[in-house]
Amino acid sequence: MLAATVLALAAAVLHAGWNLAIKTTGDREAVAFGQFVFGGVVFCPLLVWSGLPNGGAWPFLAASAVVHVVYVEGLVQAYHHGDFSFAYPLARGGGALTAAVLGAVTLGDTLPAPAWLAIALVGAGLVSLVRRGTTRASLGWALVTAAVIGGYTVIDTAGARRAGAAVGERLAYGIVLTLLAAVALTIAGVARGRAPTWGAALRAHWPRMVVSGAAVTAAYSLVLVAVSIRGVSVGYVATLRESSVVLGALAGWLFLRERLGRARLVSSLVVLAGMIALIAARP
């Protein structure tokens, strides 16, 4: 249990960290692209130990990689138009909410009445994030990102189940997903004529991209590894992982000195409380 706790909390910190790296960089799109490129490359040697995911997981990996192109664009635009303490909790919390509903619809997950009350609490926390002065663009892109997060979460949940339950199998899924997402982002960037700009950004900012890119893969893989530990429930890991919504609001308030940062921290705590109640209510 201690190992799972450390892994889940580390994943939360790493996830908030690599998102903060995007927010605080000039060319956010190029940095996000570089993160996935280096995130896959850095961890690629581990595939020699873990092996590749089982064949049944590959259709889900391919689908998730394509969805991640939309995810990165939504994330970049959300951080361009809105504060980090607003966009990050709304996107992550809204993504978890969307995943819970989609999971019930598409994966056959059952949600008892208390779970729906918890979903309402999460929704209330998300609504309270929207304060006077919130622009339509910042709200719209954060909601788009939330919807995409919910979508790829459901895809990866189904894919990870087919990849296997062992630590190596879950780790391989996370690494391969990052690599395929990098390929999909590269294709999209070339098609949009961004190759020269992104190439220059890779050469200029590669140390930053290597560090934050490693956090991309590690954050996702640590969660998959944590839930593969014997005796550890998915709900326990998910609860600790989603504490990143509070970390994001806290970072925006303390590090970026964003207006309404303290109020958004309170809203994020409500969102986290709703997530805890949602997971506790599941059978």
Describe this structure in words.
This protein is mainly α and 283 residues long. The chain has one domain (2-281). The chain is 82% helix and 0% strand. The protein is built from twelve helices and no strands. α4 (58-81) packs across α8 (167-191), α5 runs antiparallel to α11 (244-254) and α6 (113-129) runs antiparallel to α12 (261-281). The longest helix is centred in the C-terminal third of the chain and has 32 residues, at 195-226. The two termini are 20 Å apart. The mean pLDDT is 86.
State the main characteristics:
283 residues; mainly alpha; 82% helix
Task: Give the distance, in angstroms, between the N- and C-terminal Cα atoms.
Answer: 20 Å
Q: How are helices and strands ordered from N to C?
A: HHHHHHHHHHHH
- Which percent range fits the helix content? over 70%
Domain count, please report it. 1
- Low-confidence spans: pLDDT under 50, at least 5 residues? none
Number of strands: 0
- Assembly context of the chains: single chain
Helix and strand composition category: mainly alpha
Proportion of residues in β-strands: under 5%
Q: Please give the radius of gyration in angstroms.
A: 18 Å
The gross shape turns out to be: globular
